[in-house]
Specification:
The chain has nine helices and 14 strands. It has helices at residues 13-23, 43-46, 83-86, 117-120, 131-145, 176-179, 194-205, 237-247, 295-309, and strands at residues 3-8, 28-35, 60-61, 72-75, 94-97, 109-110, 125-127, 155-160, 184-185, 213-218, 225-232, 254-256, 272-279, 284-291. N-acetyl-L-glutamyl 5-phosphate binds next to strand 10. Its main location: cytoplasm.
Length: 325
């Protein structure tokens, strides 16, 4: 029997990518699509390439009290817009929240699927990590778990494609003319992803992440996110690589690479690529993580988490190779 799935925020970039993955998922059946401004439109008018089996769906006005029978709901709403409404979704409906309202919130599990799948299995309320944390924490986890770096001295320099800002981005200074051939730092010292990154670093290391520095940049590409992370530690490159190979030995979506990863390696997939370079003489360890911000950074991770909470094989519906070039 198929699992009845709803997506709220389906007209957005994160929700649209969730729809693409759900449409191809062998165990999921999309039965409910919802939104705000797009309510009343046919899904096929929003997504002309929609598979024929979904052509009958009309985007409904989001109302947690008027859901059809559902097993699973993906919420891809602007951060700040989901907490109150999702609290009214019946407990019988499993939820994966792609937005930021429930990360490290009471009653919700932080869905860092590649690092702690055992925490996610059996839960019904999952908060997907933000896109920058998805790349950063995946790269750092093996080093923190083996004590190869100091948790209190981590500097993250990250770049994201413009789709990271969502469709709403076009009205907030992220239009073509402003982003094309431009490189934009933002969110200095106060980006909303700092708390979830600090909390996870502390959980994985048992130490304080007090010195964390994070600078995101917008780069002129559609998808892709790369985090270059500078740490203090005396490990060699080979020790870091070996730690990551051990940590991710049986994890299907993380690739530990000798070459520094590139964003295009992950495009359209749920993969995360990690690599390391270290110089013990300089007390320096560099970690690099590359993901698709809409894949591992949003909808891919969300489907992985949904598989885990639905008791399905973790890789179901996520086995397609990345788009290249
Ligand atoms: N883009 C990315 O790479 C990532 C995004 N995220 C997070 O995912 C969430 C969605 O982001 P993204 O898809 O990029 O954003 P978009 O701006 O592309 O989409 C936002 C969606 O939310 C819907 N929406 C807005 N307000 C309401 C409301 N009051 N009721 C119902 N629906 C509403 C919109 O629907 P309508 O058009 O019908 O108004 C639209 O479908 C955000 O929290 C974002 O931070 C997380 C990781 C990565
Ligand atoms: C380019 C851009 O604006 N990117 C977003 C990241 C998207 C994301 O992960 O957002 P949530 O944490 O809200 O889910 C940002 O920096 O806020």
């Amino acid at each position: 029997m198929s699992i009845r799935v709803g997506i709220v925020g389906i007209s957005g970039f994160g929700g649209g990518e969730a729809m693409r993955l759900v449409a191809a998922h062998p165990a999921f059946e999309l039965v409910y699509a919802a939104g705000e401004g797009s309510a009343g439109s046919r899904l096929a008018d929003r997504f002309p390439g929609l598979p024929a089996k979904l052509a009958h769906l009309v985007i409904e006005k989001w109302d947690p009290e008027a859901l059809p029978p559902l097993d699973l709901l993906f919420a891809s709403l602007p951060t700040g817009a989901s907490a109150e409404a999702l609290a009214r979704v019946p407990a019988s409906v499993k939820i994966v929240d792609i937005g930021g309202d429930h990360r490290y919130a009471e009653g919700w599990t932080y869905g860092l699927g590649d690092v702690w799948p055992e925490r996610i299995i059996g839960q019904t309320r999952i908060a997907n990590p933000g896109c920058f944390p998805a790349a950063t924490l995946t790269a750092l986890a093996p080093l923190l778990a083996e004590g190869l770096i100091e948790p209190g001295n981590i500097i993250i320099d990250a770049k994201t494609g413009v789709s990271g800002a969502g469709r709403g981005g076009a009205t907030s200074g992220f239009g073509y003319a402003e982003t094309n051939e431009n490189l934009i730092p933002y969110g200095l010292l106060k980006h909303t992803h700092m708390p979830e990154m600090a909390a996870t670093i502390e959980q994985l290391s048992g130490g304080s992440a007090a010195g964390l520095v994070f600078t995101p940049h917008l780069v002129p590409m559609t998808r892709g996110l790369l985090a270059t992370i500078y740490c203090r530690g005396r490990a060699t490159t080979e020790q870091c690589m070996q730690a990551a190979r051990r940590f991710y030995a049986d994890r299907p979506f993380v690739r530990v690479t000798d070459k520094p990863p590139q964003t295009k390696w992950a495009t359209g997939s749920n993969l995360a690529f990690v690599s390391y370079a270290a110089d013990p003489a300089r007390n320096l360890v560099m970690a690099i993580g590359a993901v698709d911000n809409l894949g591992k950074g949003a909808a891919g991770q969300a489907v992985q988490n949904a598989n885990l909470i639905c008791g399905l094989p973790e890789t179901m519906g996520l086995e397609g190779a990345p788009v290249w070039p």
